[in-house]
Design goal:
There is one protein chain. This protein is mainly α and 93 residues long. It is 45% helix and 0% strand. It contains four helices and no strands. Helix 2 crosses helix 3.
Amino acid sequence: MEARALVAWNVRRIRVDLGIPQEQLAYDAQIDRSHMGAVERQDANPTIDLLDRIAKALGVHVSEFFVQPPKGATPHRTLRKGRKPAPLRQKKK
């Protein structure tokens, strides 16, 4: 797994395991929520300083972002708890 993918995998894994919404992590790490999303989607190449701030916000050492996932592990897709349901749309008659 490439370094950027590995970091993205582990940031999301740790965040979801801790039950922290992406918005809250971004706020705690003092970055924009859209940039936090880009890090988790592998669209951003985070600096070591940014990884350090994210690690501190999560309460982990930065080395946790470079741990290889177990073979056959599935990605953490969504954080269900606290999510707002999609608004219901009424059908036009």
